[in-house]
Amino acid sequence: MLKDSRVFSSFSVDDLDKAKAFYQEILELEVVDNPMGLIEIHFPNNNNIMVYPKPNHIPATFTILNFNITNIESIVEGLTARGVVFEKYDEEYIKTDEKGISHGNGPTVAWFKDPAGNIFAVMEE
């Protein structure tokens, strides 16, 4: 019934202007204003994500957006230099190094939060 539908994801933030600046200036993503009062993050192949303001926003406790990348060390260093703080985990099922990178528990991955507290990840292919 829905298999041929165009799909997209969306998530909320508490401050759309802060989110837009972070996505554009820090992450260097293509961000476009939407006439409905939200923003769209544009990716190749028309895979867009809608970001909408929500005054009572509560960030998810799980990863909402993953970026598949090829050199995690370089990406983490570059984002850290731009002020991104990577999450550090020392739990039974997930541990990260001093840079915030998890090695050996599945894919090599590092997590960080946007200004609204949403969890994003960079994951080495």
UniProtKB/TrEMBL annotation:
<feature type="domain" description="VOC">
    <location>
        <begin position="5"/>
        <end position="125"/>
    </location>
</feature>
<dbReference type="InterPro" id="IPR029068">
    <property type="entry name" value="Glyas_Bleomycin-R_OHBP_Dase"/>
</dbReference>
<dbReference type="InterPro" id="IPR004360">
    <property type="entry name" value="Glyas_Fos-R_dOase_dom"/>
</dbReference>
<dbReference type="Pfam" id="PF00903">
    <property type="entry name" value="Glyoxalase"/>
</dbReference>
<dbReference type="InterPro" id="IPR037523">
    <property type="entry name" value="VOC_core"/>
</dbReference>
<protein>
    <submittedName>
        <fullName>VOC family protein</fullName>
    </submittedName>
</protein>
